[in-house]
Amino acid sequence: MRADDPVKKKAEIVKIDPTHPEPAFSRCKEVVASGGVIVYPTDTYYGLGADPRDPRAVRKLFEIKNRPADQPILLLIAEPAEVKDWVEVIPSRAADMMKRHWPGPLTLIFRAKADVLPELTAGTGTIGLRVPGNKLTRCLLQSLGRALTGTSANRSGQLSIRTAEEAEAAIGDRVDLILDGGETTGGKPSTVVEVSADVFRVLREGAVPLRDITG
Fold first, then answer.
1. pTM, whole model, 2 decimals?
2. What angle do CA 113, 94, 143 make, to 5 degrees?
3. How far is CA 130 from CA 66, 90, 165, 208, in A?
4. Which among 20, 75, 151, 171 has the fewest CB atoms less than 10 Å away?
5. Domain residue limits at 123
6. Residues 150-174: pLDDT tens digits?
7. The predicted structure's pLDDT at residue 8
């Protein structure tokens, strides 16, 4: 590095106290509300979180991941009641799966409302939603009072991240805050099912077995 090269700022790291997580969650709320991008623990790996209603924050997320614009971004929500904020219609089959598998590792792809950012849908007109099984993640979402983007906290094509230390090494100079919730479990990704109006299609079998979806 030359002497006149700018020094990249490392992300702030905030460790969660499981018995008193409110200060960490409050700091996350400040960063997300100001258009920042955070790294936070989810059911399996660490995720990359931004306000899905903020176009600049979403564009920044794509830049951090080096993610192609034709790949949509799913959202994590705190409870099933929030689905109506993002989708046009909740088909009866989708409502049944929400009751049986949420909270949990099932991502449902709905027809998106017209005001959902096109960057999130990648021009498909659909949006993926999940209520995470991780209680800590749900508490964070409740504290924020908004959904978060739920894409994995790694550069596209790179390994998924299970610790805050791995996140710092991989993208610590690109994000604004890393929420350290300890090592995540890893394992299979969520099962993904498209349930938009007249479509029912399993796009990826993951942690929820296919027999539990189609049975």
1. 0.93
2. 65
3. 23, 14, 26, 13
4. 20
5. 12-214
6. 999 999 889 999 999 999 999 999 9
7. 61
